[in-house]
Amino acid sequence: MNRRQAQAWLAIAMLTMALPGNANAYIHLGSGFGGQTRPIKWNTASVRWYANDRITVPGVSASQFQSEVAQAFSTWESVSTATIAFQFAGFTSALPFDDDGLSVFGFDSEPEMDRVLGATTFIVDILTGSIVESDVFFNSIFTWSVAAAGDSSRFDLRSVATHEIGHFLGLGHSAIGETEPRPDGGRRVLGSGAVMFPISLGRGVIADRVLQPDDIAGASDLYPDGDFRSDTGIITGRVRLNGVAVNGAHVVAFNPQTGALIGNFSGPDGTFRIAGLTPGPHVIRVEPIDDADIDSFLEPAGVNVNFQVTFHDRLIIAPRGGASESFDVAVRPK
Amino acid sequence: MSPKLLLFAALTAAIGSVVTVPSAAAQTVSEPVGRVQVGVGFGWLGGAVFGEQPADLRAASGGPYRLFESETDLGSTGSFEARVGILLSRRFGVEGRVAISKPEFRTVVTSDAEAAGSFTTAENIDHYDFDGGVVFRLAEWGSVTPFASAGAGYVRQLHEGQALVETGHLFYVGGGFTFPLVSRPQGFIRAVGIRTDLRLNLLYLDLDEESRQQGSVSGSFVFTF
């Protein structure tokens, strides 16, 4: 199989910020080939993107759409510990999700995805994990706003674009957030600690224009600048329940000096790794995935949610430029 | 004992001594000017408050949604200290000190949105103070000699497993008294006495440069050479 043949659609339905329903730290998206999984990412110095100017929605012109997406890109570019650059290549009539070699952002009507505000798809070279093309669509069945202060009856385009660009970079969903069930089957967000949380804060909210520590750590770990690795620390450990490894536990490192929350998930062997931490002591909090559908974050098979929220009894040090010694967190059964 | 109480006691001792400075006092044999004094002893290093820090998420209302609350402090602990100094005059001396302790650095988590109760998470750190300053000897009360002291120093903390070193600096004011036990006019060791110290440290760690009060009390044997 040559490299060209190995390229494949990796259709990842990033159910972003859906209506309080389903619409995800920092986890990195990955591609698997030959038994290995590697994070997917751009391997070009400057990523070119296009804006579709053929489909517009009320209240958002093509130029306003391009401007809002460009500002969302700038938000990610301004992460001082990451090195990634984007370039607007022009308007196009090409639609998102066309396999045309262009990375296109645009509106599209997807009535059957009635809880999905937007989604991101990729063409990935599965041998290298390099993203070849990525398209982002915004569901035009919803009403959208480009108002500077937001519009209480519409979804903020820049906030959703910032979330989708996180996926565009190769980030998965973050589980740093709290929700409660709604009568209609969806979920209402009580609090969100990351732009990459899978469920929208709702109409009129513009909070997701600003990246949170979890988002910044994720992007920086994927596209580290020169000093990122030496200036930050990593915490590694393993989650166990009655001595057995816990798959899919959400582990959050809390910095009691800064208040930053940065998380990740344990793997099938119970191990986890959280990078991009400010050096110093951290509180470790472990919880089951219970604030969104498991498949918003991980392959559901084998994920264990039958344990209680647990705080590890030791403060764990993120050493500057290195990783902590691995430790075990023993969670209690529900 | 709170840092403020410690400071009050130290200053009271110092001021009380100052107002009773006699017009003339003979130099005692046990503490001759120009001789090196070495002290070793143990003490109690008071705690330091690092403060509260909530784990806040963003709510749709624009305000915070509190995931949990946390409060962090450095616990009080015993300490070992060694000091070397020299009296430059009857009233004035300089000294340097190293103090070693192993306090517990702890964060207490409360009000978690999904878990009832409070949770204490902690680590032990190796805490080193290297400081130096001046000593003002005050009027003797019989055999007891009160003193006031002030100075500055360097702080070094090694976190658990020596995974991280944090440094900082401190300023201190304090006071106490010395009491002679044995003195002789000649010999390698000219005198042995005891010394008590009450101090208030203002601690600045490089990680955030915030000042934190920390009191200490100690007692030591002092050897005059």
Low-confidence stretches of chain B: 1-30
Whole-Å distance between the termini of chain A?
48 Å
Helix content of chain B: under 10%
Largest interface: A-B, 43 and 38 residues
Query: What oligomeric state do the depicted chains represent?
Result: heterodimer
Classify the beta-strand content of chain A into a percent band. 25-35%
Compressed to H and E, one letter per element, the order of chain A equals: HEEEEHEEEEEEHEEHHEEEEEEEEE
CA radius of gyration of chain A: 19 Å
Classify the beta-strand content of chain B into a percent band.
Answer: over 45%
| Number of helical elements of chain A | 5
Structural class of chain A: alpha/beta
Name the structural class of chain B: mainly beta
CATH class placement of the largest domain in chain A: Alpha Beta
How many structural domains does the protein architecture of chain B include?
A: 1
Strand order of the largest sheet of chain B: 1-5-6-9-10-11-12-13
> What is the number of helical segments of chain B per DSSP (H or I, 4+ residues)?
1
What string, H for helix and E for strand, traces the elements of chain B in order?
HEEEEEEEEEEEEE
Distance between the ends of chain B: 34 Å
List the domain count of chain A as a whole number: 2
